[in-house]
Amino acid sequence: MRKRVPLNAIRAFEAVARHASVAKAAEELCVTPTAVSHQIKLLEDFLQTELFLRRNSRIYLTSESSATLSKISQALDLIDDSVRTLGGTQENLHARLTVGASTSFASFWLMPRLRKFIESVPEIDLCLHTFISRKEAETQDSDLRICNWQSHLDWKIEPLMEEENLPVCTPELARRHGNDPAKLLANAPLIHVDRSHLGYEGNYPDWSRYLEEYGIQRPDVMNGPRFNQAGTAIEAARAGVGLLLGRSLLVEQFIDNGELVMAAECYPERSPYYLLSSWKTTQNDAMRQFRDWIVEAVSSSRMVHAL
């Protein structure tokens, strides 16, 4: 006889663990954060173990709960798929494809193009899981992952594209410095992005490396506002705060619509992206269709380079 487990509490745990946020889990489950917290407490009492570590208003998985997250996610997916078959034949059901991508990549590059994929293959239900850090990405359960590093896990790695790193600012800021790249690089306020905490291996230069490459010396090179995510740094650049050493993949749409302009030359080295999938995952039609689509999307993107 099966032990009666609190299924709603398990769903709440899986959602909180996947999002690393009670609020986001509550939004997904269409309940209040208080209700989610109650379900987590119920499950911890049921298991007589702590599932999350709570530090400085943030939550982290314990090592034990992290080790079981993938299996629980797969089990919930299997339950959902099985229940859906009760309403019709398997042939009438949509395929489900889970894709993992960084929050900045998903927001600034993938999202503006995603409608074309959804419209071209309406029989596929796409689940997009975003992450901020490498550690978070490698604990998620996804069919495909778009990453700027090569994982040491047992994943198939396919080169996808390269992006450039280029100084960008608003047209107004460029005009204030006479639209002169040398004056902009020497005098405009600098916007910084701190990436060390993310655990990425991408070859992203900072302002010190960039200015040294082009022989420009600034005693205040470390001054200026700093952001821990590319997205907020881009918003600062769009607001005219300063000059951003931006990633072409993320700023392309803002250059195209005139909100930002390329203020000087690109950094000479490019940063690679890869399409990752587990060797243990069945390579199904949905995965192949998404792979074909994103390769085509890369080839038509003006400011990235296909591999």
TrEMBL record:
Pfam families: HTH_1, LysR_substrate. Keywords: DNA-binding, Transcription, Transcription regulation. Gene3D superfamilies: Periplasmic binding protein-like II (3.40.190.10), Winged helix-like DNA-binding domain superfamily/Winged helix DNA-binding domain (1.10.10.10). This is LysR substrate-binding domain-containing protein. It comes from Thioclava kandeliae. Residues 5-62 form the HTH lysR-type domain. Belongs to the LysR transcriptional regulatory family. The keyword Manganese does not apply. The lineage of its organism: Bacteria, Pseudomonadati, Pseudomonadota, Alphaproteobacteria, Rhodobacterales.
